[in-house]
Design goal:
The chain has eight helices and 22 strands. The chain is α+β, with helices and mostly antiparallel strands. The strands form three sheets. Strands 1, 2, 6, 7, 8, 9, 10, 18, 21 and 22 form a ten-stranded antiparallel sheet that branches. Strands 3-5-4-19-20-11-12-17-14 form a nine-stranded antiparallel sheet, with helices on one face. A three-stranded antiparallel sheet has the order 13-16-15, with helices on both faces. A hairpin with a 2-residue loop joins strand 1 and strand 2. The structure holds the ligand C=C(O[C@@H]1C=C(C(=O)O)C=C[C@H]1O)C(=O)O.
Length: 378
């Protein structure tokens, strides 16, 4: 007998569809059922604070006026293991388009570089992104994508969010991915974050790989990209925390595809009434996915790329006690309601001494997290 869902082609035989799953190295959070939808984060945060709902899960958009996809689940399960479950093999998935083309992305980086290098504006960093349109040979489920993503990630990071709560075009769509970046986490009065910014590609030769990491740790350009993120997170958390501990220098961390500069941040909440969702709203969008100054960078990104939807937003959970964890929505894709169309996203921080060709290459490597996991031919 096949294990439930392992070889089934009939969707009805698959495990129950969850509106939200977050797999992390230290455990998994799974939401079951939906008792309320919220397309405004402030309404969800109020409902949680006033005890009207017992938990909130879902995703925040990149743009402040975009709809959120947040729900109050019927139950929120915590398990100490990362996520794994029987899943169907994925069909062939191919790239059908680049949004925009690689050439246009390079042109956009060059335009931003001219602004960053000119004297008459105060922009210091802008994160530009591009997308790839993908198509599966037959419909896939968000669950099967999530299992492929968590199995391919050395730390088993993976997420799945039903975006229906955002309404309109998001109805029936799902966000899936494997983010390495913790926006903010709250447990009791303890607040932690692990921002990443500054990147270099991994190499299959261990010597070259190590040398790349060492070069990244000493790269003035990457340290500058990183410092913008730290400054913004410090400014957001300082009013909310006591004993905020931010190491002077970042350390090098890795995913299967990339080295990143990362800084482990820790603090204690002044007011235990501030929930993990409140904290996520206070720090989002960081210059890891937006830029510096925030508003000017965001306006430029929206004018250049158009609406990013949920890419470069945040996704996570928060319970009645206010505890929770929110990740930065990167290394991700949106699955269309038909189960066939997917859009994958990748971006990178641009500062005055960035190189356009390197920036394009960085996004290509970042796409690898989703494309490798889903076996997309390139
Ligand atoms: C924007 C992305 O990643 C972010 C940008 C990084 C950078 O510019 O070096 C590094 C990690 C992430 O904070 C992405 O993966 O799409």
């Amino acid at each position: 007998m096949p294990v439930l869902g392992a070889t089934a082609t009939d969707r009805a035989e698959r495990p129950v569809a969850h509106p939200f799953v977050l797999s992390r190295p230290h455990g998994t959070v799974i939401a079951e059922g939906v008792s309320e939808h919220f397309d405004r984060a402030s309404a969800a945060a109020d409902a949680l604070r006033t005890g009207q709902v017992a938990a909130i899960v879902g995703a925040l958009p990149f743009a402040p006026d975009g709809p959120a996809a947040l729900t109050a689940p019927n139950t929120l399960h915590h398990s100490p293991a990362h996520y794994d479950a029987p899943a169907a093999d994925l069909p062939p998935i191919t790239i059908t388009g680049a949004l925009p083309s690689e050439g246009e992305h390079v042109d956009r980086v060059e335009t931003v570089l001219r602004l960053l290098r000119s004297d008459d504006n105060d922009l210091l960093k802008v994160v530009l992104a591009r997308a790839l349109a993908l198509r599966a040979d037959r419909p896939v489920t968000p669950h099967d994508l999530l299992v492929a993503l968590t199995r391919n990630d050395p730390l088993h990071n993976g997420f799945l969010v039903d975006l229906t709560a955002a309404g309109g075009v998001w109805t029936g769509r799902h966000l899936v991915g494997s983010s390495p970046e913790v926006l903010v986490r709250r447990r009791g009065d303890r607040v932690t974050a692990h921002p990443l910014a500054g990147s270099a590609p991994r190499h299959c030769d261990p010597g070259i790989d190590r040398a790349t990491a060492d070069r990244l740790a000493g790269s003035a350009k990457n340290l500058a990209e990183h410092a913008h993120v730290i400054d913004a997170i410090r400014a957001a958390l300082e009013p909310l925390c006591v004993d905020l501990d931010i190491p002077e220098q970042p350390t090098v961390t890795s995913t299967r595809q990339l080295w990143h500069l990362g800084t482990p941040i820790e603090g204690r909440l002044h007011d235990p009434g501030v929930t993990a969702l409140d904290l996520a709203l206070a720090v989002h969008p960081t210059p890891a996915i937006c830029g510096t100054p925030t508003a000017a960078a965001r306006d430029l990104i929206l004018a250049t790329e158009g609406d990013r939807g949920f890419y470069a937003g945040a996704l996570g959970w928060c319970d009645a006690a206010g505890d929770g964890e929110w990740l930065v929505t990167i290394r991700c894709a949106v699955l269309d309601a038909d189960g066939v169309g997917l859009t994958a996203y990748a971006g990178g921080g641009i500062v005055a001494d960035s190189d356009p060709a390197d920036e394009l290459a960085e996004t290509t490597v970042k796409f690898g997290t989703v494309l490798d996991a889903l076996g997309v031919l390139r």
